[in-house]
Amino acid sequence: MRTESRAGAFPAVLRDELAWLPPPVVVFNKSHSGSRLLAELLDAAGVFMGAELNASRDALPVLEIVEALVRRYYPDYAPLWDPDHEPDPALVPLIRAALARHLAGRAAGSGAPWGWKLCETVYALPVIDALFPGARFIHLVRDGRDVAFCDHKGPTDDFWRKIYFDSERMRTFRDMPLDPGWYRRRAHVFNAQHWLNSVRVGRAYGAMLRERCLEVRYEDLCRDFAATATRVLRFVRAPAGEEAIARIAPSVHDGSIGKHRARSRRAVAEVVAIEKPLLLSLGYLEVDPEPPRPSPWNLRAVALLGRRLRREHR
Q1: What's the structural domain count of the chain?
Q2: Is residue 1 part of a domain?
Q3: Nearest Cα to Cα of residue 235 among 32, 47, 66, 40
Q4: What are the DSSP E strand ranges found in 36-146?
Q5: CA–CA distance, 9 with 4 (Å, rounded to integer)
Q6: What is the per-residue pLDDT across 244-278, written as a single tens digit (0 to 9) for each?
Q7: Confidence (pTM)
Q8: CATH code, domain carrying 84
Q9: C-alpha distances in angstroms, 152 versus 1, 31, 233, 235, 288?
Q10: Would you put residue 57 in left (φ > 0), alpha (ψ -120 to 50) or beta?
Q11: Which domain holds residue 276?
């Protein structure tokens, strides 16, 4: 029976235990960014993506790990590196059990590549990196205006409030309560905030991973699949790249790109009001679409000039 003399050594304890595994390939992104396509590509290329997957090919056991880490620590993982910190004693057994379920069916000791796709992994990247120092990460990014009109999960519990806002103490957003009814009525506004936070966190953590993190655009994957898929599979050193690309290519299309154009101008403007800085930074917007409001001082000067001209005219 394993025991940890100090739970504060948690990352190192598990890292040593997991060292027999090859470094995993980890796909993360804001939900509804098209990562199922990447998961299918990697699976076709010989990367074992997990034994328990949902319809979107998210790794369900890994979600248990990420949820435990996010609820207990995110956005501050500093205590985990403190040797005097006593983390939840259930954390290490939970991670062991979840990884065992995830890897069920993969031939032990084969050296076969493995990994997972789970959108919310982004919020646990520092810990995943500590557990698997050689892991390679793929961050899939999609136009936030399109993503905003794909409904997912609202910020209705502590886990999802951290995913959206980095704090479980949030109770309102733009004067709206964080409850299911408001999410259904104004989903695109909440989704815009979700996209903003996910991509911001993913790019910040990804930059710290340096050459082990590859950013891929969903639009490139759809419009130039062969070239983009080749880049991805070379990055992860997948064993059967050409065959995988040929198998997946017939299912790829670009019909979902620009879907926000079918929405009302008002709804899109509400999304852009939240996402604008990052949309501009990523190049999804080439120019700021919002004209500046006239300065109140300028308006006052115009009004005074108008009165003066009217007096002189009389």
Answers
A1: 1
A2: no
A3: 47
A4: 115-117, 136-141
A5: 8
A6: 999 999 999 999 999 999 999 999 999 999 999 99
A7: 0.89
A8: 3.40.50.300
A9: 41, 7, 28, 30, 28
A10: left
A11: 7-313
